[in-house]
Amino acid sequence: MMRRGEAGDDNVEIKEHPRQANAPVGSPPHRSQFQNQSVFKNWKPWIVPLFVVVNIAVFIAVMYVNDCHSNSGSCVAPSLGRFSFQPLKENPLLGPSSSTLEKMGALDVNRVVHKHQSWRLISCIWLHAGVFHLLANMLSLLFIGIRLEQEFGFLRIGLVYVISGFGGSLLSALFIQAGISVGASGALFGLLGGMLSELITNWTIYANKFAALLTLLCIIVVNLAVGILPHVDNFAHIGGFLSGFFLGFVLLIRPQFKWINQKSCPPGYIAPQAQSKHKTYQYALWVISLIVLITGFTLGLVALFRGVNVNNKCSWCHYLSCVPTSLWSCKSQQVYCQSTELGGQLELTCLSNGKSNMYDLSNNVSSKVQLLCAQLCS
Hints:
Layout: E1 3-4, E2 11-14, E3 35-38, H1 47-66, H2 98-104, H3 109-114, H4 120-123, H5 131-152, H6 154-175, H7 185-201, E4 206-207, H8 209-226, H9 234-251, H10 257-264, H11 280-305, E5 337-342, E6 345-350, E7 356-360, H12 369-377
Helix pairs in contact: 1-5, 5-6, 5-7, 6-7, 6-9, 6-11, 7-8, 7-9, 9-11
Organism: Salix brachista
Region (Disordered): 1-33
Subcellular location: Membrane
């Protein structure tokens, strides 16, 4: 953990000595007269635990809507009834079907652009593909978010989380045009990005700053490296991280020590004079970051709603999300079927393997076409 320079957590050591009767102003301080005084408010975290509860509640609601027994004959944990999981072959993360996630608000670029469902850029960060996905993200949120909320409060950390999640969804939508995407990973990477920029902009108040920087960079690099595996939306990770990184310079800025000492110095103590609350480089980073955020979000939204596929502008960018090796392929797993209505029946033909099957329309199969197609092509 990073420590505050010159003091313990959330404490600043006032190094000026009290003026004594016969002591001239500006005489050397006596260490025996040093005094610690809390100047940074220690917030009681509640927004991060609330985010965890909301994510869990949404997952339970999604599983209730999914109702595996109504769309599959081989559910995992069938004793759970409506809350049983899709077959492992379909969803190895112990969760709902992709069609249910799409119905509940998963990121689908086609729906965002052509059906004006821009709300999916936010709703998708509250959805998870399965129990394992949910547990990994919520444990990470508690580990990272609680500490940040204690230091900076619910409003600033809440904004970093939500805006970073939006930024991750936006970059993902610009690069991944097929399939759906869900998860809070972009928002979590935003918190990591905010931690990094907070360390940089408040550089002078930390002790062991180089060790803290190296540790944080290693954590970020390892987590981003995991994103090059298939079926992981690393563009959401990168977009969230960049959003949180620049937001940190704007929202997580700390006053310089001289200003803190001047404002919190008790009567009878001499504090060094500070002309401004923040250092010049902090103001510069604040302005630059705000401009980058506004420009980036504006250009990204314009490109998205104009239907721009950024992959056509950047031939190598797809390697940021998946690097093919002899162990796995990065080809899209999206399946396509041709459908034909014959009387009261629907004929589906998988375009990848040529298999076909007939389904009775009276069984409301029209709402399950994507699921039936996936089963037919598997």
